[in-house]
Structure formats: C-alpha cells, structure tokens
Write a structure and sequence with these properties.
It is globular and about 60 Å long. The protein has twelve helices and 13 strands. By secondary structure, it is α/β, with parallel strands linked by helices. A seven-stranded parallel beta sheet has the order 5-6-7-8-9-10-11. The protein has a three-stranded antiparallel beta sheet with strand order 1-2-3. Strands 4-13-12 form a three-stranded antiparallel beta sheet, with no helix packed on it. It has two domains: about 120 residues, Enolase-like, domain 1; about 220 residues, Enolase-like C-terminal domain (TIM Barrel, Alpha-Beta Barrel), CATH 3.20.20.120. Helices cover about 35% and strands about 20% of the residues. Bound molecules: magnesium ion.
Length: about 375
C-alpha cells in the first residue's frame, strides 16, 4: 500500500465539566487528528492526545513530531512508514504519534480487506464490548445514586475514584454505600491513581475486603514493583496497574514478580494497536487479565480502542471506553453507540468512523 497524501489537524474540544488535575484546571482537550490517503483514494484516520501524567510529551511536541513525519509519509509505502515509526519505538513521550499513524495504517489495511478493523486483527473478535461506568462523586449518597443508575442502565462494572480522603473510614463508607446500591452482581473497581503509601494501601485494602472488590487499580505510585508485589501478597483484593503500564518490558517484569492480576492498557501509551496486541498476548499467557481504556480522546481513538478491546480473550471484561461524554462534542459524524452498557463495534470495513468534514475545511489545517 502506498500513501499518496498525509495531513494532520489540531483540535480543541471543551470538557463538559472542567476538572482539576495535578497540573491545574483542565478546561479543554487538545489533540491531533491524522489522515492518510492511499493511492486508491481510501482514507485512514488516527488520533493522538497528550497524557503527560503517564509520561507522554505535550501536544505541542507531538504536533512538531507529526509535522516532521508528514512530508516523509507522503509517497511512502506502509513498510517504509512502519520503519519511520520504529525509529522512535522505545520513546514513551512520542507513543501517541505512533498510535495515531498505526491506527490510520490499520484503518486503510482493514478497509482494503473489506473487514472491520477488529476482525482484521482477530477473526474471532466480538461485535460488542461491555463497559464500566466511572463514579467520581465524593459524597457517599451521591456516589451511591450515580452507581445505582449506571448498574440499572446495564453497566457490568462500576469504577470508583478513591484515595482523596485522609480518613480511611470515609473511603470505606463511600465504597460500602456504592456496593449497597449496585447489589452483588455488578463489578466494583477502585482506582487510587497511585495516591497511597504501602502502609496505607494495606490498611485500607483490608477494610475493603468485605465489599467484594473486583480490583484495586494503581494503589501505589508507579515504579516500585517490589512494593506492589508485597501489597498483592498481603491483601485479598486483586491488584491492577494503569499508570505503571508504560511498556511491554515493565509489564513483563510485573508479571514475572507476581505483582499484578490485571493490566489496564491505553493504546496511546503503548504506541498503537499492533503493540497493544502483543502486550495482550503476553499478559494473557501469564494469566493476567487486560482491560482496555481510552486516554479521553474523541471518537477516532475511542473507536480504535473499541476494535482492540473486541479482540481481548473472552469473556471480555468491562472496558473504560465510555469517556466520550466527558467532552462537549465529538468530532465524528456518528459516535460509537452504547446500548445497555455495551459499546457496539462498527460493522463497516476499517475503523468505521468518519470525522465531520468541516474539521478539515476550517482553513487552518497544517499540512
Ligand atoms: Mg486509572
């Protein structure tokens, strides 16, 4: 396959509700859409956003890398473009650029094969992916109400953000209220985002054991695999990692040291669907479950993560793909459809998404 034209576009989409992170108040999502056109006129799409808390470069740096790549992509074969990507393979900071270009190439390949991307990657891919709902309310009653609605709407798992309270009993009170509201059949995951010390993690995890927690996500800051392995040996709740999942090597070490039960994968951090598939195989062989999530992108990257999630070993665990509503608008003509807590995999050839044409026609495209 030869690529005749390549372009990218930087977008800004407001968050529906601005949120506070360690780097300040975030009002909008800045990202980059990539479009590759092959000789037969087919168009492949990809998307790159910055996730600096995981170690990526800023969107400005990602944009500069794309500006450097685009003239070299034009007129190149897929093989030549994959060699360009391999040149910065070990560089986490630029992983979102690899993800965007890899997605666009796979979009073209699968469309040329008249196959949805998921089935191009795996002929046995599922046609829908169960989702988790995310609850961030701090008040126990509000958290319980939101979780109850999500469970009723069909979400098979609730993911709660925890770790904000200095008082352990307040964390436990919130978790107890949510478990009570969703009943015993819905999964309950707790995401700590690395906020606990090892002592605190052991103390609170033991208090949480009666509430049937599916897993404790990133209880400790990334880095100390020995501490994570010790925590896992001390508590009865399965341990998941998210921020720690930055490369295949790190995941392999965490598996070898029996530090984890679950690995959360963001294709943008792993540097593409091709690399993510290898990581899924590695983890699955070791009995470690994989959950796929977005990095809060628009529909292009959500669709890519969706196709990847559809290839997970069955039964597919609920994945973190229901993040589109965190943004005020999507950039697609049709956003991926959620029905009864499951996201339907587009049945069209390729990625199956179509960015709104006006995105490319607003006059300030960078080529
Ligand atoms: Mg997380």
């Amino acid at each position: 396959m030869m690529i005749e034209d390549a372009l990218y576009h930087r977008y800004t989409v407001p968050f529906r509700v601005p949120f506070v992170t360690s780097t300040g108040l975030q009002q909008h999502r800045d990202g980059l859409l990539v479009q590759l056109r092959d000789r037969d006129g087919r168009i492949g799409h990809g998307e790159a956003v910055a996730l600096t808390s995981f170690g990526t470069a800023t969107v400005d740096v990602l944009e500069r890398k794309l500006a450097e790549l685009v003239p070299r992509i034009k007129g190149s074969s897929e093989q030549q473009i994959r060699e360009l990507l391999a040149d910065f393979e070990g560089d986490l900071s630029l992983a979102p650029v690899r993800f965007a270009v890899d997605t666009a190439l796979l979009d073209l390949d699968s469309e040329a094969s008249a196959t949805p991307l998921s089935r191009y990657l795996d002929p046995d891919a599922a046609t829908e992916v169960p989702l988790n709902a995310t609850i961030s309310d701090m008040d126990p009653d509000a958290a319980a109400t939101a979780a109850g609605y999500a469970a009723m709407a069909g979400y098979q798992a609730i993911k709660m953000k925890v770790g904000a309270f200095a008082d352990a009993s307040r964390e436990v009170e919130r978790v107890a209220a949510v478990r009570d509201a969703i009943g015993p059949a819905t999964g309950l995951r707790l995401d700590v985002n690395g906020a606990w010390s090892i002592e605190r993690a052991i103390e609170i995890a033991r208090m949480l054991e009666p509430y049937t927690i599916e897993y404790l996500e990133q209880p400790l800051p990334p880095g100390d695999i020995g501490a994570l392995a010790y925590l896992r040996s001390e508590v009865g709740i399965p341990i998941a990692v998210d921020e720690s999942v930055t490369s295949e090597e790190v995941v392999k070490e965490m598996i070898d040291r029996e530090a984890i039960d679950v690995a959360i994968i963001k294709p943008t951090i792993i540097g593409g669907l091709t690399a993510s598939r290898e990581l899924i195989e590695l983890a699955s062989k070791a009995g470690v479950r994989v959950v796929v999530t977005t990095a809060i992108e628009t529909g292009v990257a959500i669709a890519a993560a969706l196709h990847l999630a559809a290839t997970l070993p069955k039964p597919i665990p609920p994945c973190g793909l229901a993040t589109g509503t965190l943004l005020e608008t999507d950039l697609l003509v049709d956003s991926p459809v959620i029905r009864s807590g499951r996201m339907l995999v587009p049945d069209r050839p390729g990625l199956g998404v179509q960015p709104r044409p006006t995105i490319w026609n607003d006059g300030d495209d960078d080529r």
